[in-house]
Every structure is written in C-alpha cells, then in structure tokens.
Amino acid sequence: MWGMEESVKMVCPRQFPHVALEYSLQPGLWEGRSVLSTCHWLFSSASYRANSLVVQHSFIIVLQVFVYPDNVAYPFGGEGFTQYVLMELHYDNPAMISGTVDSSGMRMYYTSTAREYDAGILTFGHDITPDQIIPPNAKSFTTTAILTGECTEAILPEDGIRVFGNFLHTHVVGHGLTVQHFRKNPECDVYEELEPIDRNLQYDFNYQQITHLKREVVIKPGDVVQLKCFYGTEGVDGVTLGGLSTRNEMCFTFLVYYPAVDFQIAISRIESSALRDYLKSLPSGDQIVNGTEIDYSKLNTVDWDVDKFQETVDESMQGAFCRGEGVSHETFYMHFM
Length: 337
What we know:
single chain, mainly beta, 24 strands, about 40% strand, Dopamine beta-hydroxylase, Cu2_ascorb_mOase-like_C, Cu2_ascorb_mOase_N_sf, copper ion binding
C-alpha cells in the first residue's frame, strides 16, 4: 500500500467523528474463526486487544491525502504479512443528536510491485490512564512521555530508522505538542538535544492529520525521544483526566518510518506512588487516597496549586515501557528537560 485518501460524506462534517484507527491483525488470529467473529472477540477483550493489534494508521476524519515516498510502501497480504485490516471509528455526540448519517471512509491505493523499503508506524505517548491529571485553571500544563535509550538500543537496527511522517494527537484542551530528539555525545557521555522531530504549538483538535515532515529524521539505537503535550484549562470546570473520551485527554504521537521493524508501542506514565504521595499531602488527601487506591471523583474538591503540581509531575520518577520483536522492556527515568 503506497497511499491513502480519506473520504467524508456526512451531515455536519467533522462534528461527530473523533478519530479513526486502522489496525493490522497479527497473522493467525483469525484461524478457526470468521473475520467478523475475530473482530468481535478482539474488541470485547481489552487485554488481548492491547497485545494483538498494531496501529497501522490513525487520523481525525478530515479530507486529506497521505502518500508514501516513492521507495516506501506499507506491506499488506502475502505470506507472513497482514491478511486483514480492522478499522475502528470513534464518534463524539455529547448532545445525543439523532438522525445523523455518517458515511466516512477511506480509499487505499496499492501496487503489486514491491518497494525498496517497508514502512512501519510507531505508537508512542503517555499511558491512557486517569493518573494523567490536568488541573483546572491552568494556562499551560505539560504532560511528558518518553521513548528511552534502552528501548531504541534494544529494538532499532544498527543504521536506525528514518521518520518521514507523523500524527500528533491530544483532545480538546490540548493546544500544543513537541517531539524532542536527544542523542548521546560519546566524547563527553551526555545527551544533546537535536532539532525537534515534529512540533505544533497551535494545535487544534478539530483539524488533525498525518503530516509529511520537512526532512526525514534518523532515529538511531540509543537515541531518546520525548513527547511534550501542552494543555490549557482556563475556564474548565473540574480536573481533566486521561482517557478515551473526548472530554478526557491523551498525549500521543504516531511516527511513520522506514525500514519497518517490529517496534509496536512505547508508553510511559508518572510513578503511582509519587502521585499518591502528592495527593496525600493535600488537606483533603485522606479522602482522596485510601491505601493504594485513588478516588478520582474527589479530585474536584482540591484547591489546585497548578505550579506546585506541575513541579511534582516534572520531578517524579516515570515508568517507561516498550514492546518489540523479542523485547519487552520497562525502566524508570526522569524528564530530560
């Protein structure tokens, strides 16, 4: 597959579709099942879904065309490659408007002539969890995710991968994202910051798309990639938590690259004990934290000190996880900057 085009035909364009995810199903999942029953089985089993589906594309439903470089294509079909693709379309209809017909879709262009390189997509970001807490009345609050040097060292090929496209994603209170790139200088054994891989400081949830980078970026083994998501919650009533709903938040980026390697996902999150310790220190902390459990419904009773909470999040240890071919790696880290 060397190109794709989204097609939108619906009432009130862009009002209801939230995001579309296109998954490739790992070979063998459908053995003994029909395609329909396999899809139902995967989407009714969250844990199996998380370990069996690979994001192939992700995009908001806006009219756009994304074309791969001439020497790159996404492999599909044939022995050892994806046999089925599952498309998941999320909708957002808080007003419960009825009678709307949506015929959104996509058109894929393919060729039977193999390209020099197979493309891959690396899903990278903050774990989707209510532990991603964004306080109200914040002009700019930052969530950080990291792809560690240990992960890139363990999974990437010697010559690295070349990133040529990217898709940035937060929800409605997100107003900016930056994908930072760090490489260790062997002469002084310190990490130096390179040019950002991607950046959008005027992010608009209602206009998202996969973009071609102005230049290909090589990520080498041992490199560190850090994603920063910036949120504005002035005038927002109550805390915003991480989650799947449009009224929750996310912090993700999807790096489109070649040559493809089995690098499925990289996620990170604040260490739970650090978050509990901070919440327990608040005047109402005993009501919010019970042992190891956090009562997220009580967070709206907090008189938030945004700067203090940001400092706590930035200075806390973070847990980072990545999964690839023969690798399942977890480590703890501090933010780079």
